[in-house]
Amino acid sequence: MSKPKVLQIGALSERFNRELAECYEVTALWQRVDPLAFLQEQGTAFELLVSSARFGCSAEQLACLPNLRAICSFGVGYDPYPLELLRDRGIVISTTPDVLNDCVADLAMGLIIDTARQLAAADRFVRAGGWPAATFPLTRKVSGKKLGIVGLGRIGQAIARRAEGFAMPVRYHKRCQDLSSPYGFEADLLALARWADFLVLACPGGAATHHLIDADVLAALGPQGILVNISRGSVVDQPALVTALLNGHLGGAGLDVFEGEPTVPAELFALPNVVLLPHVGSGTHETRLRMEELVLANLQAFIDKGELLTPL
Ligand code: NAP
Protein backbone atom coordinates (compact mmCIF):
# COMPACT_ATOMS: atom_id res chain seq x y z
CA MET A 1 0.00 0.00 0.00
CA SER A 2 1.36 3.44 -0.85
CA LYS A 3 2.15 5.84 1.96
CA PRO A 4 0.03 9.01 2.36
CA LYS A 5 1.68 12.11 0.91
CA VAL A 6 2.74 14.78 3.42
CA LEU A 7 4.21 18.18 2.68
CA GLN A 8 6.66 19.35 5.36
CA ILE A 9 7.43 23.08 5.32
CA GLY A 10 10.56 23.23 7.49
CA ALA A 11 12.97 20.79 9.15
CA LEU A 12 12.21 19.60 12.68
CA SER A 13 14.56 17.30 14.61
CA GLU A 14 16.40 14.54 12.73
CA ARG A 15 14.48 11.96 14.76
CA PHE A 16 11.13 13.52 13.81
CA ASN A 17 12.04 13.86 10.14
CA ARG A 18 13.13 10.20 10.10
CA GLU A 19 9.96 8.94 11.82
CA LEU A 20 7.74 11.01 9.55
CA ALA A 21 9.50 9.63 6.48
CA GLU A 22 9.04 6.03 7.76
CA CYS A 23 5.25 6.33 7.71
CA TYR A 24 4.55 8.90 4.99
CA GLU A 25 5.77 9.94 1.58
CA VAL A 26 7.30 13.23 2.71
CA THR A 27 8.14 16.16 0.50
CA ALA A 28 10.65 18.36 2.33
CA LEU A 29 9.80 21.81 1.01
CA TRP A 30 12.88 23.48 2.53
CA GLN A 31 15.11 21.23 0.39
CA ARG A 32 13.63 22.52 -2.87
CA VAL A 33 15.73 25.08 -4.71
CA ASP A 34 12.69 27.32 -5.25
CA PRO A 35 10.00 26.22 -2.75
CA LEU A 36 7.28 28.52 -4.09
CA ALA A 37 7.86 27.51 -7.72
CA PHE A 38 7.69 23.86 -6.60
CA LEU A 39 4.35 24.51 -4.85
CA GLN A 40 2.98 26.33 -7.89
CA GLU A 41 3.79 23.28 -10.02
CA GLN A 42 2.98 20.44 -7.65
CA GLY A 43 0.87 21.91 -4.79
CA THR A 44 -2.34 20.19 -5.94
CA ALA A 45 -0.85 16.83 -4.82
CA PHE A 46 -1.01 17.64 -1.09
CA GLU A 47 -3.89 17.21 1.36
CA LEU A 48 -1.71 17.01 4.50
CA LEU A 49 0.86 19.45 5.77
CA VAL A 50 3.30 19.38 8.69
CA SER A 51 4.80 22.62 9.93
CA SER A 52 5.60 24.43 13.16
CA ALA A 53 4.98 27.60 15.17
CA ARG A 54 8.24 28.81 13.66
CA PHE A 55 7.73 28.02 9.96
CA GLY A 56 3.92 28.34 9.75
CA CYS A 57 2.33 28.41 6.30
CA SER A 58 1.86 31.69 4.43
CA ALA A 59 -1.22 32.79 2.48
CA GLU A 60 0.95 32.65 -0.64
CA GLN A 61 1.86 29.01 0.06
CA LEU A 62 -1.76 28.15 0.89
CA ALA A 63 -2.89 29.56 -2.46
CA CYS A 64 -0.77 26.85 -4.14
CA LEU A 65 -2.38 24.07 -2.06
CA PRO A 66 -6.02 23.92 -3.29
CA ASN A 67 -6.58 20.39 -1.93
CA LEU A 68 -5.12 20.92 1.53
CA ARG A 69 -7.32 19.50 4.31
CA ALA A 70 -5.22 19.47 7.49
CA ILE A 71 -2.16 21.10 9.04
CA CYS A 72 -0.34 19.47 11.97
CA SER A 73 1.83 22.08 13.63
CA PHE A 74 4.65 21.61 16.15
CA GLY A 75 4.32 24.13 19.02
CA VAL A 76 1.35 26.08 20.39
CA GLY A 77 1.90 29.45 18.71
CA TYR A 78 -0.34 29.94 15.68
CA ASP A 79 0.64 33.49 14.72
CA PRO A 80 2.41 32.45 11.46
CA TYR A 81 -0.81 30.92 10.03
CA PRO A 82 -3.53 32.91 8.24
CA LEU A 83 -6.31 31.53 10.46
CA GLU A 84 -9.23 33.26 8.73
CA LEU A 85 -8.14 31.86 5.41
CA LEU A 86 -7.88 28.38 6.92
CA ARG A 87 -11.36 28.71 8.41
CA ASP A 88 -12.83 29.95 5.11
CA ARG A 89 -11.33 26.99 3.27
CA GLY A 90 -12.31 24.45 5.95
CA ILE A 91 -8.68 23.47 6.58
CA VAL A 92 -8.24 22.14 10.13
CA ILE A 93 -5.09 22.74 12.14
CA SER A 94 -3.66 21.09 15.25
CA THR A 95 -1.02 22.40 17.65
CA THR A 96 0.78 20.68 20.55
CA PRO A 97 -0.84 22.15 23.68
CA ASP A 98 -0.34 21.12 27.30
CA VAL A 99 2.69 18.84 26.79
CA LEU A 100 4.96 21.91 26.96
CA ASN A 101 3.27 23.76 29.85
CA ASP A 102 5.70 22.54 32.51
CA CYS A 103 8.85 23.43 30.65
CA VAL A 104 7.69 26.88 29.53
CA ALA A 105 6.38 27.66 33.03
CA ASP A 106 9.64 26.39 34.57
CA LEU A 107 11.54 28.69 32.24
CA ALA A 108 9.35 31.66 33.19
CA MET A 109 10.13 31.05 36.87
CA GLY A 110 13.80 30.67 35.94
CA LEU A 111 13.72 34.04 34.19
CA ILE A 112 11.98 35.68 37.15
CA ILE A 113 14.66 34.40 39.52
CA ASP A 114 17.58 34.97 37.18
CA THR A 115 16.55 38.53 36.35
CA ALA A 116 15.80 39.53 39.96
CA ARG A 117 18.76 37.74 41.57
CA GLN A 118 21.06 38.30 38.55
CA LEU A 119 22.29 34.70 38.46
CA ALA A 120 23.69 34.95 34.95
CA ALA A 121 25.43 38.26 35.74
CA ALA A 122 26.87 36.80 38.99
CA ASP A 123 28.11 33.77 37.04
CA ARG A 124 29.82 36.06 34.51
CA PHE A 125 31.34 38.00 37.46
CA VAL A 126 32.88 34.82 38.94
CA ARG A 127 34.14 33.54 35.57
CA ALA A 128 35.74 36.90 34.82
CA GLY A 129 37.73 36.65 38.07
CA GLY A 130 35.79 39.47 39.73
CA TRP A 131 35.10 37.75 43.08
CA PRO A 132 38.52 38.11 44.79
CA ALA A 133 38.54 41.82 44.02
CA ALA A 134 34.97 42.91 44.74
CA THR A 135 31.62 42.00 46.27
CA PHE A 136 28.77 41.29 43.85
CA PRO A 137 26.05 43.97 44.26
CA LEU A 138 22.84 43.21 46.17
CA THR A 139 19.88 42.14 44.07
CA ARG A 140 16.07 41.88 44.49
CA LYS A 141 14.07 39.35 46.50
CA VAL A 142 11.64 37.07 44.62
CA SER A 143 9.54 35.23 47.26
CA GLY A 144 6.42 37.07 48.36
CA LYS A 145 6.55 39.60 45.49
CA LYS A 146 3.43 40.42 43.44
CA LEU A 147 3.12 38.55 40.12
CA GLY A 148 0.98 39.86 37.27
CA ILE A 149 0.32 37.42 34.42
CA VAL A 150 -0.87 38.55 30.99
CA GLY A 151 -2.73 35.58 29.50
CA LEU A 152 -3.86 33.03 32.06
CA GLY A 153 -4.18 30.09 29.68
CA ARG A 154 -2.50 26.72 29.94
CA ILE A 155 1.02 28.10 30.43
CA GLY A 156 -0.08 31.14 32.45
CA GLN A 157 -1.90 28.89 34.93
CA ALA A 158 1.17 26.64 35.25
CA ILE A 159 3.22 29.75 36.07
CA ALA A 160 0.65 30.86 38.65
CA ARG A 161 0.74 27.45 40.36
CA ARG A 162 4.52 27.63 40.62
CA ALA A 163 4.32 31.18 42.00
CA GLU A 164 2.17 29.91 44.88
CA GLY A 165 5.24 27.95 46.04
CA PHE A 166 7.08 31.27 46.22
CA ALA A 167 4.23 32.84 48.28
CA MET A 168 3.61 35.34 45.47
CA PRO A 169 0.20 37.01 45.27
CA VAL A 170 -1.03 36.51 41.67
CA ARG A 171 -3.34 38.65 39.55
CA TYR A 172 -3.95 38.30 35.82
CA HIS A 173 -5.15 40.13 32.73
CA LYS A 174 -6.80 38.64 29.65
CA ARG A 175 -9.76 39.45 27.46
CA CYS A 176 -12.36 37.63 29.57
CA GLN A 177 -12.40 36.97 33.29
CA ASP A 178 -12.05 33.30 34.21
CA LEU A 179 -14.69 32.91 36.91
CA SER A 180 -13.31 29.58 38.08
CA SER A 181 -9.81 31.00 38.63
CA PRO A 182 -8.59 31.47 42.21
CA TYR A 183 -6.53 34.49 41.08
CA GLY A 184 -7.66 38.12 40.91
CA PHE A 185 -8.72 39.43 37.49
CA GLU A 186 -7.56 42.83 36.31
CA ALA A 187 -9.38 44.13 33.23
CA ASP A 188 -7.04 47.14 33.06
CA LEU A 189 -3.54 46.11 31.95
CA LEU A 190 -2.04 49.41 33.19
CA ALA A 191 -3.49 48.80 36.65
CA LEU A 192 -2.01 45.28 36.66
CA ALA A 193 1.41 46.67 35.68
CA ARG A 194 1.21 49.33 38.43
CA TRP A 195 0.34 46.64 41.00
CA ALA A 196 2.89 43.99 39.92
CA ASP A 197 6.53 43.58 40.91
CA PHE A 198 6.90 41.05 38.08
CA LEU A 199 4.81 41.11 34.90
CA VAL A 200 4.97 37.83 32.97
CA LEU A 201 3.63 37.59 29.42
CA ALA A 202 1.95 34.28 28.51
CA CYS A 203 -0.55 35.37 25.85
CA PRO A 204 -0.43 34.51 22.11
CA GLY A 205 1.39 36.62 19.52
CA GLY A 206 -0.31 38.00 16.40
CA ALA A 207 -2.21 41.15 15.49
CA ALA A 208 -4.51 41.20 18.56
CA THR A 209 -1.60 41.42 21.03
CA HIS A 210 0.85 43.40 18.88
CA HIS A 211 2.73 45.85 21.17
CA LEU A 212 0.24 45.22 23.99
CA ILE A 213 3.19 46.03 26.25
CA ASP A 214 3.98 49.59 25.19
CA ALA A 215 5.84 52.50 26.80
CA ASP A 216 2.85 53.26 29.08
CA VAL A 217 2.69 49.71 30.46
CA LEU A 218 6.47 49.70 31.00
CA ALA A 219 6.24 53.06 32.81
CA ALA A 220 3.45 51.64 34.99
CA LEU A 221 5.65 48.64 35.87
CA GLY A 222 8.32 51.17 36.80
CA PRO A 223 11.97 51.26 37.89
CA GLN A 224 11.48 48.48 40.46
CA GLY A 225 9.40 46.29 38.12
CA ILE A 226 10.59 43.35 36.06
CA LEU A 227 9.14 42.19 32.73
CA VAL A 228 9.38 38.52 31.75
CA ASN A 229 8.39 37.51 28.23
CA ILE A 230 7.95 33.86 27.27
CA SER A 231 5.08 34.58 24.82
CA ARG A 232 6.11 36.23 21.54
CA GLY A 233 8.43 39.13 20.78
CA SER A 234 5.65 40.94 18.93
CA VAL A 235 3.71 41.43 22.19
CA VAL A 236 6.30 43.99 23.39
CA ASP A 237 7.19 47.33 21.81
CA GLN A 238 10.87 46.37 21.77
CA PRO A 239 12.37 49.84 21.09
CA ALA A 240 10.28 51.18 24.03
CA LEU A 241 11.57 48.31 26.20
CA VAL A 242 15.20 49.00 25.26
CA THR A 243 14.75 52.71 26.02
CA ALA A 244 13.11 52.00 29.39
CA LEU A 245 15.92 49.62 30.37
CA LEU A 246 18.71 51.95 29.23
CA ASN A 247 17.12 54.89 31.09
CA GLY A 248 16.59 52.87 34.28
CA HIS A 249 12.82 53.42 34.00
CA LEU A 250 12.29 49.65 34.18
CA GLY A 251 13.89 47.42 36.84
CA GLY A 252 14.82 44.54 34.53
CA ALA A 253 13.71 42.12 31.86
CA GLY A 254 13.93 38.37 31.33
CA LEU A 255 13.34 37.61 27.66
CA ASP A 256 13.02 34.30 25.84
CA VAL A 257 11.49 35.85 22.71
CA PHE A 258 12.22 38.94 20.63
CA GLU A 259 10.81 41.01 17.81
CA GLY A 260 12.89 40.07 14.78
CA GLU A 261 14.54 37.08 16.52
CA PRO A 262 17.17 35.65 16.27
CA THR A 263 18.47 39.23 16.16
CA VAL A 264 18.60 40.70 19.69
CA PRO A 265 19.11 44.43 20.39
CA ALA A 266 22.84 44.77 21.10
CA GLU A 267 22.15 47.67 23.51
CA LEU A 268 20.89 45.06 26.00
CA PHE A 269 24.08 42.98 26.08
CA ALA A 270 25.85 45.03 28.76
CA LEU A 271 22.90 45.30 31.17
CA PRO A 272 23.21 42.97 34.22
CA ASN A 273 19.48 43.23 34.99
CA VAL A 274 18.53 41.75 31.61
CA VAL A 275 18.54 38.03 30.83
CA LEU A 276 18.48 37.03 27.18
CA LEU A 277 17.53 33.52 26.05
CA PRO A 278 17.36 32.13 22.48
CA HIS A 279 13.64 31.09 22.48
CA VAL A 280 14.13 27.87 24.45
CA GLY A 281 10.87 27.76 26.43
CA SER A 282 9.93 24.22 25.38
CA GLY A 283 13.50 23.18 24.59
CA THR A 284 14.10 20.06 26.67
CA HIS A 285 14.62 16.52 25.33
CA GLU A 286 11.53 15.27 27.18
CA THR A 287 9.13 17.99 26.06
CA ARG A 288 10.32 18.19 22.46
CA LEU A 289 9.82 14.41 22.18
CA ARG A 290 6.25 14.71 23.48
CA MET A 291 5.54 17.56 21.07
CA GLU A 292 6.84 15.49 18.15
CA GLU A 293 4.77 12.50 19.22
CA LEU A 294 1.68 14.70 19.36
CA VAL A 295 2.26 16.03 15.83
CA LEU A 296 2.52 12.45 14.55
CA ALA A 297 -0.54 11.33 16.55
CA ASN A 298 -2.59 14.21 15.13
CA LEU A 299 -1.56 13.37 11.59
CA GLN A 300 -2.43 9.70 11.98
CA ALA A 301 -5.76 10.49 13.71
CA PHE A 302 -6.75 12.73 10.82
CA ILE A 303 -5.87 10.03 8.29
CA ASP A 304 -7.66 7.28 10.27
CA LYS A 305 -10.74 9.13 11.51
CA GLY A 306 -10.79 12.49 9.75
CA GLU A 307 -10.35 14.25 13.10
CA LEU A 308 -7.40 15.92 14.81
CA LEU A 309 -6.65 15.11 18.46
CA THR A 310 -5.73 18.65 19.50
CA PRO A 311 -7.37 20.99 17.00
CA LEU A 312 -6.92 24.74 17.47
P1 NAP B 1 -3.57 29.38 25.72
O1 NAP B 1 -3.88 28.25 26.63
O2 NAP B 1 -4.38 29.58 24.49
O3 NAP B 1 -3.60 30.72 26.59
C1 NAP B 1 -3.53 32.00 26.03
C2 NAP B 1 -4.02 33.00 27.05
O4 NAP B 1 -3.84 34.32 26.51
C3 NAP B 1 -5.49 32.86 27.41
O5 NAP B 1 -5.67 33.06 28.79
C4 NAP B 1 -6.17 33.99 26.63
O6 NAP B 1 -7.34 34.39 27.34
C5 NAP B 1 -5.07 35.05 26.65
N1 NAP B 1 -5.19 36.01 25.57
C6 NAP B 1 -5.50 35.77 24.27
N2 NAP B 1 -5.56 36.93 23.60
C7 NAP B 1 -5.29 37.91 24.49
C8 NAP B 1 -5.22 39.33 24.39
N3 NAP B 1 -5.48 39.97 23.23
N4 NAP B 1 -4.91 40.03 25.50
C9 NAP B 1 -4.68 39.40 26.68
N5 NAP B 1 -4.75 38.07 26.84
C10 NAP B 1 -5.04 37.34 25.75
O7 NAP B 1 -2.06 29.31 25.21
P2 NAP B 1 -0.80 28.66 25.97
O8 NAP B 1 -0.69 27.24 25.59
O9 NAP B 1 -0.86 29.04 27.41
O10 NAP B 1 0.38 29.45 25.21
C11 NAP B 1 0.46 30.85 25.30
C12 NAP B 1 1.51 31.40 24.35
O11 NAP B 1 2.80 31.08 24.85
C13 NAP B 1 1.50 30.78 22.96
O12 NAP B 1 0.53 31.36 22.11
C14 NAP B 1 2.91 31.03 22.47
O13 NAP B 1 2.97 32.26 21.78
C15 NAP B 1 3.72 31.15 23.76
N6 NAP B 1 4.68 30.04 23.88
C16 NAP B 1 6.00 30.32 23.95
C17 NAP B 1 6.91 29.30 24.07
C18 NAP B 1 8.39 29.59 24.17
O14 NAP B 1 9.19 28.76 23.77
N7 NAP B 1 8.80 30.73 24.70
C19 NAP B 1 6.50 27.96 24.09
C20 NAP B 1 5.14 27.70 24.03
C21 NAP B 1 4.23 28.76 23.93
P3 NAP B 1 -8.55 35.19 26.60
O15 NAP B 1 -8.83 34.43 25.34
O16 NAP B 1 -9.65 35.19 27.60
O17 NAP B 1 -8.02 36.57 26.35
From TrEMBL:
A Pfam family it matches: 2-Hacid_dh_C
Keywords carried by this UniProt record: NAD, NADP, Oxidoreductase
Domain D-isomer specific 2-hydroxyacid dehydrogenase catalytic residue range list: 46-309
One term of GO molecular function: hydroxypyruvate reductase [NAD(P)H] activity
UniProt family annotation: Belongs to the D-isomer specific 2-hydroxyacid dehydrogenase family.
InterPro entries: D-isomer_2-hydroxyacid_DH, D-isomer_2_OHA_DH_cat_dom, D-isomer_DH_CS1, D-isomer_DH_NAD-bd, NAD(P)-bd_dom_sf
Protein's name according to its UniProt entry: Lactate dehydrogenase
The D-isomer specific 2-hydroxyacid dehydrogenase NAD-binding domain, residue ranges: 109-281
Source species: Pseudomonas borbori
Domain of life, source organism: Bacteria
A GO CC term attached to the entry: cytosol
Gene3D superfamilies documented for this protein: NAD(P)-binding Rossmann-like Domain
UniProt keyword annotation of tRNA-binding present: no
